[in-house]
C-alpha cells in the first residue's frame, strides 16, 4: 500500500494561484487512481478532481472546471493540483487520496469512501 505526503498550499489572494503536490511512496503508485477532496469548516468533505492511472482521464467537480487542473507524473510518484483563479470559497483543507483500481479508473471516484489511502491534508486559504 502506498503512503501519501502532501505539500503546497498556504495563503493567497483571490484571483491567485497555488499548486498542491501529493507524493507517494511505493512502487505500485501507477496502479492507483488519485483524487483530491476538500473540506471547509463546518462542511462535508467534497470531491474536487480525480485522475486515472495513466492520466488518460480526468474529472472535475463543476465549480472547479476550467480553474483547477489535476495531473500526475508516475515516474515521480506524484500527483499535482494546479489551482488558478482562486476564490474565497475555495478556502478549505485539501486532501489527496488513492484508490487501488484494476482498470484505468474505478466507479464512484467522487465518493471519498472509495479511497483507501489519504494524505495528511493541507490548508488553502484564499483572502478576499
Description:
This protein starts with a strand and ends with a strand. The protein is mainly β. The strands form 2 sheets. Strands 2, 4, 5, 6, 9, 10 and 11 form a 7-stranded mixed β-sheet that branches. It has no helices and 11 strands. The mean pLDDT is 95. The radius of gyration is 14 Å and the shape is globular. β5 and β6 form a beta hairpin.
Low-confidence stretches: none
Order of helices and strands: EEEEEEEEEEE
How many DSSP helices? 0
What is the beta-strand fraction?
over 45%
Task: Write down the overall mean pLDDT.
Answer: 95
Derived structural class: mainly beta
* Strands, total number: 11
Radius of gyration using CA atoms only = 14 Å
- Helix content range: under 10%
Multimerization status = single chain
Main sheet makeup: 7 strands, mixed
Global morphology = globular
Separation, N- and C-terminal Cα atoms: 40 Å
Feature tags:
globular; 7-stranded mixed β-sheet; 128 residues; mainly beta; single chain
In short:
The protein is mainly β. It contains no helices and eleven strands. The protein starts with a strand and ends with a strand.
Spell out the blueprint of helices and strands.
Layout: E1 4-7, E2 10-13, E3 18-24, E4 32-39, E5 46-51, E6 58-60, E7 68-73, E8 78-83, E9 92-100, E10 117-118, E11 122-127
Parallel strand pairs: 2-11
Antiparallel strand pairs: 1-3, 3-8, 4-5, 4-9, 5-6, 7-8, 9-10, 9-11
Amino acid at each position: 500500500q502506498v503512503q501519501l505526503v502532501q505539500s503546497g498550499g498556504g495563503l493567497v489572494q483571490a484571483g491567485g494561484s497555488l499548486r498542491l503536490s501529493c507524493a507517494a511512496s511505493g512502487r505500485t503508485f501507477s496502479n492507483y487512481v488519485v483524487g483530491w477532496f476538500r473540506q471547509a469548516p463546518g462542511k462535508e468533505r467534497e470531491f474536487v478532481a480525480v485522475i486515472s492511472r495513466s492520466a488518460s482521464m480526468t474529472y472535475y467537480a463543476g465549480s472547479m472546471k476550467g480553474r483547477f487542473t489535476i495531473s500526475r507524473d508516475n515516474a515521480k510518484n506524484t500527483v499535482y493540483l494546479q489551482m488558478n483563479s482562486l476564490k474565497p470559497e475555495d478556502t478549505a483543507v485539501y486532501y489527496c487520496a488513492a484508490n487501488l483500481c484494476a482498470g484505468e479508473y474505478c466507479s464512484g471516484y467522487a465518493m471519498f469512501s472509495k479511497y483507501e489511502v489519504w494524505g495528511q491534508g493541507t490548508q488553502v486559504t484564499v483572502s478576499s
